[in-house]
Amino acid sequence: MFKSMLRTVTVASILAAGAFAAHAGNPSVGGAPMYDNKNIIENAVNSKDHTTLVAAVKAAGLVETLQGAGPFTVFAPVNSAFDALPAGTVETLLKPESKDMLTKVLTCHVVSANAMSDAIGKMVMDDGGTHDVKTVGGCVLKAKADGGKITLTDETGGVATVTIADVKQSNGVIHVIDKVLLPKG
Prior knowledge:
With 185 residues, the protein is an alpha+beta fold.
């Protein structure tokens, strides 16, 4: 019986250590641990700072896509970034008749690659200080390194700063940003 209990404790300890190791390299986001063995959606739904983004992804019908194999890099705006948009913008975008525009805005935050911040920084340096980032939505963002932080300029001239970088996911990476990136027009 003692051996059985010891084995149970040992197995539980190993499983707990494995769960900790899977999380050890990832920062928490929105007060929630982010696990590199979960996909973008499985992690994002737990962040209290990304409830608007999650609602928008659901309204646009992109949940299944972002649960897919990827790899994806998602520049994930926090709730306050959506709150900073002109009054009524979010409500309008979440309406069924605005699904195409919402999808365009959201896919301008997604790149078909697993782009960690050090790789983005290297591309910026290799390109002389600015690197064009082509998104799955057809937008071209301008990435720059500014004071040790990565910034992204959208097609309207808006600038977002990566506030939490390199949140590893099973299907890519999330970089938390402080502004919503917008397509031209």
